[in-house]
């Protein structure tokens, strides 16, 4: 598995497995177990997904040494603030059945995320979190926390796919030594993603699917990807993206698909902010 090197020298797989919207614990444990069988070692979960326990169960039952895994979870808005964040980190450790978390992120840029980040810095120094970062932080809030935190975010997980490529945001992250990570690498099928003619034509050259081309494009841009699926066949397909490489011409064609805007929601939109912050009231 190819890896990226975070600012503290820790290696992170460039391809992982996401478990967003797999809320049934039995199903989540099953699919994570299958992903591990396929070869995935990086698993991305979150407190808000309510499936940390299932991830922990699957990792434990795999029989594979804990140190071979890279487990990511995230502090939710309702757990923001120094004391609440500390309590939530302890709960995540308990549910994941692990003595440390490889990467802890602030899930959303709302509520007292500075207090949350101080708690994460404390756990990082204690060795209970091996890397810390943020999620959904647009360049303005990302720069803010990077400028005023003791330990700069090592990862920023943001919506990144061929229709929203985050090129400027990635440049800003690189300036601060922060690794970009994609959520939604397939845009959840929006814009008729899986029938895109550009991606299909490129894929036909290599005997690869639209999904594989889309993942390969991000990987060649040094973007960490965490595709989610409940199908073992698709897990295998998503894993088979290291046996081909896109040419500069291919990359340029895909770059032109960028619409430079979210296909989901904007964290700068007042209605979106009211909705997300209202979830915890």
Number of strands: 10
CATH-defined topology: TIM Barrel
Q: Report the span from N to C terminus.
A: 42 Å
**CATH top level?**
Alpha Beta
Largest sheet: 8 strands, parallel
Q: Mean pLDDT, as a whole number?
A: 96
Spans of 5+ residues with little confidence (pLDDT < 50)? none
Q: What percent of the residues sit in helical stretches (DSSP H or I)?
A: 40-55%
Can you walk me through this structure?
There is one protein chain. With 281 residues, the chain is α/β, with parallel strands linked by helices. It has a single domain (3-278), classed as NADP-dependent oxidoreductase domain (TIM Barrel), CATH 3.20.20. The protein is built from 11 helices and 10 strands. It has helices spanning 25-38, 52-62, 82-96, 113-125, 139-148, 167-175, 197-206, 210-220, 232-239, 248-255, 270-278, and strands spanning 3-5, 11-13, 17-18, 42-44, 70-75, 103-106, 132-135, 155-159, 179-183, 224-225. The strands form 2 sheets. Strands 3-4-5-6-7-8-9-10 form an 8-stranded parallel sheet. Strands 1-2 form a two-stranded antiparallel sheet. α1 (25-38) packs across α2. The longest helix is centred in the first third of the chain and has 15 residues, at 82-96. The model has no long low-confidence stretch (mean pLDDT 96).
């Amino acid at each position: 598995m190819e890896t990226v090197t975070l600012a503290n020298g820790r290696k992170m797989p460039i391809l992982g497995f996401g478990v967003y919207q797999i809320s049934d614990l039995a199903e989540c444990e099953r699919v994570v177990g299958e992903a591990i069988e396929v070869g995935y070692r990086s698993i991305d979960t979150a407190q808000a997904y309510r499936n940390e326990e299932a991830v922990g169960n699957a990792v434990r039952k795999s029989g594979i040494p804990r140190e071979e895994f890279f487990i990511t979870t995230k502090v939710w808005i309702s757990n923001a603030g120094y004391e609440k964040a500390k309590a939530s980190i302890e709960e995540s450790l308990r549910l994941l059945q692990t003595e440390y978390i490889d990467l802890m992120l602030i899930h959303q840029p709302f509520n007292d995320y500075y207090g949350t980040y101080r708690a994460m810095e404390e756990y990082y120094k204690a060795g209970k979190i091996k890397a810390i970062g943020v999620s959904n932080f647009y360049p303005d809030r990302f720069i803010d926390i990077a400028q005023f935190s003791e330990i700069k975010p090592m990862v920023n997980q943001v919506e990144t796919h061929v229709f929203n490529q985050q090129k400027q945001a990635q440049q800003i992250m690189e300036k601060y030594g922060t690794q970009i990570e994609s959520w939604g690498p397939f845009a959840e099928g929006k814009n008729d993603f899986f029938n895109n003619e550009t991606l299909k034509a490129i894929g036909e050259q290599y005997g690869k699917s639209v999904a594989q081309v889309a993942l390969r494009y991000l990987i060649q841009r040094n973007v960490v990807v965490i595709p989610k699926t409940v199908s073992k066949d698709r897990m295998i397909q998503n894993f088979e993206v290291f046996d081909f490489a896109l040419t500069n011409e291919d990359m340029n064609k895909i770059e032109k698909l960028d619409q430079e805007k979210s296909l989901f929601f904007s964290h700068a939109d007042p209605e979106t902010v009211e909705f997300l912050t209202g979830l915890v009231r």
